């Protein structure tokens, strides 16, 4: 996801100026080395542009097949996330301090270049993060333009900020990749630093709206693999069965450990090993026992 939870993002960023922190806006004089320091420049211009969706802080892009939705997909990773997942593989997406300032019209043009690829493969655009709903105005405008161009759209989200979406916003999205971090409230809060309730409420709203979902659950030994937590997660997802096309149980890995270190952040899972194939398959069977197609 959403926070790069199932793999490390290694693609190059976009071609625009790379920033750390908030930029002072577009169209000003060039900055030394392309780096803008929050402490030295005015944030207001960037915040104003973000409110209108004219620009967004984009972490990176990726062109992949059958990973972030069906077919070949252009995945746009946005910066910013309200969660602090202990297993996040891209912690540099948590804050609005790393990325490339992108004009919304330029992003839309880039996405449209791949229309023939999307048509041939049954693919489309996926907006991920970080949390794509953190920069909602920008995300909304990109989704609307993609839909108008006949491009399949997907959003990879934790659902934590789902309350920000209107029904009209929901209708801009063909598929939601909903990351359910845990099924027990106390475990969810331990994993993410946030409450489980917003994710449940968002999932229920998607079902009521008839929206399609792919569910993602990351199996982390010693953190999310307790049988009671797995059972609780499967029970929650089973309630959404009419809208759930598939469940993906993803193995934890610690490829993002160096990023945590480079950011001066404590990585609590440095000594955790990936789950065994047997444990992965056992957890998948729990979801399958609820009648859910699970990989």
Automatic annotation (TrEMBL):
InterPro entries in UniProt: Aldolase_TIM, Organic_radical-activating, PFL1_activating, Radical_activat_CS, rSAM, rSAM_sf
Gene of this entry: pflA
NCBIfam families, per the entry: PFLA
Task of the protein: Activation of pyruvate formate-lyase under anaerobic conditions by generation of an organic free radical, using S-adenosylmethionine and reduced flavodoxin as cosubstrates to produce 5'-deoxy-adenosine.
Keywords (A to Z) from UniProt: 4Fe-4S, Cytoplasm, Iron, Iron-sulfur, Lyase, Metal-binding, Oxidoreductase, Pyruvate, S-adenosyl-L-methionine
The organism of origin for this protein: Corynebacterium xerosis
Name under which the protein is recorded: Pyruvate formate-lyase-activating enzyme
Reaction(s) this enzyme catalyzes, per UniProt: glycyl-[formate C-acetyltransferase] + reduced [flavodoxin] + S-adenosyl-L-methionine = glycin-2-yl radical-[formate C-acetyltransferase] + semiquinone [flavodoxin] + 5'-deoxyadenosine + L-methionine + H(+)
Cofactor: binding comment: Binds 1 [4Fe-4S] cluster. The cluster is coordinated with 3 cysteines and an exchangeable S-adenosyl-L-methionine.
